[in-house]
Specification:
The chain is about 60% helix and about 15% strand. It has about 120 residues and is α+β, with helices and mostly antiparallel strands. The chain is elongated.
Length: about 120
């Protein structure tokens, strides 16, 4: 059901399509609708979650856009994979970089702990 909703969203938004992480926005919506105490509401969990997801994506869309500035082919064990760089100033990576800088400034201890723990 989640796969179907994300597929439809991607087809309706060909400029954005599906970007990894959208499922993390959709899944909690679907879950909340799916565990509703009202049986009729549970039956409509998928469309209700879908429309809420669309509404959220209008707010968060820029976080999922990529500015594709280059592509690099790598040959590895006879398999060719395409690496795409996300150099968008509004994408998820850029948002996380701004958050990282802010955390370093506001709470260096937590920042340093996360830097060491996540490496």
């Amino acid at each position: 059901e989640m796969k179907r909703a994300l597929f439809v969203y991607a087809k309706l938004n060909p400029g954005l399509t599906y970007v990894q992480g959208m499922n993390e926005l959709y899944a909690p919506l679907y879950y909340i609708f799916r565990i509703d105490v009202d049986e009729d509401a549970r039956e409509h969990a998928e469309p209700d979650a879908f429309w809420c997801f669309i509404d959220l994506m209008t707010e968060f869309r820029d976080n999922y856009c990529k500015q594709l500035v280059g592509a690099q082919y790598i040959l590895h064990r006879a398999n060719i994979s395409l690496m795409i760089k996300d150099n968008s100033d509004q994408g998820v990576k850029a948002t996380m970089a701004r958050l990282n800088k802010l955390l370093a400034k506001c709470d260096p201890d937590v920042h340093n702990h996360l830097e060491v723990s996540l490496k």
